[in-house]
Amino acid sequence: xxxxxxxxxxxxxxxxxxxxxxxxxxxxxxxxxxxxxxxxxxxxxxxxxxxxxxxxxxxxxxxxxxxxxxxxxxxxxxxxxxxxxxxxxxxxxxxxxxxxxxxxxxxxxxxxxxxxxxxxxxxxxxxxxxxxxxxxxxxxxxxxxxxxxxxxxxxxxxxxxxxxxxxxxxxxxxxxxxxxxxxxxxxxxxxxxxxxxxxxxxxxxxxxxxxxxxxxxxxxxxxxxxxxxxxxxxxxxxxxxxxxx
Length: 245
Description:
- The chain has helices spanning 35-38, 58-70, 100-112, 146-155, 175-202, 215-222, 232-243, and strands at 2-8, 12-19, 22-30, 49-54, 77-78, 84-85, 88-89, 117-122, 125-131, 137-144, 207-211, 226-228.
- By secondary structure, the chain is an alpha/beta fold.
- The chain has two domains: 2-78, ATPase, nucleotide binding domain (Nucleotidyltransferase, domain 5, 2-Layer Sandwich); 84-231, ATPase, nucleotide binding domain (Nucleotidyltransferase, domain 5, 2-Layer Sandwich).
- The radius of gyration is 19 Å and the shape is globular.
- The chain contains seven helices and twelve strands.
- It starts with a strand and ends with a helix.
- Helix 4 (146-155) crosses helix 5 and helix 5 crosses helix 6.
């Protein structure tokens, strides 16, 4: 069984090619690249399945489906968030309203962690989700990510510029440094506060799983024992591929 897994995020497309139980190759590209560029070298690949998680809307799904047909790939399977699967139950009243990236991350994390888990995804958006020992999704939060926070301030004010700054210092001593420091520290403080509240409410101690492009920075700022795990959406996709060979 050779399957292609595709994670279409807000700004990047990541993919992995799996054969039997092994990941044999992978890639990552900006979303503004063409499908021909993103999947160059794979068009002649014989595939038994294509599994996709996309947060960018129906136009991409239509484009990919047409491209797959043109290149004699199997019709892509676009995964949707469910009410319950792989031992995880969705907190949302309308399950599909939960972003499929968050859903697949929950599913992947629950397979490898026991007890209460706080999942912090530091990407374009900054998301926090809690799942308990029974696999019950307790809910979560969505905030602008570090770069979105910075760009929001820079795009809506005059005469503020940010150069490369050390984001580990305690206080900013210039406007540039103050702007550079604030987003990551604000998000880290928010995550800490919410984790404390959930721990108090549940009576359980949470494990922290960090993922996303800025996870290393958040780990330093949190100052807590964290598990850094990348490609959780793709890991969740692989579970679906194994379920539906």
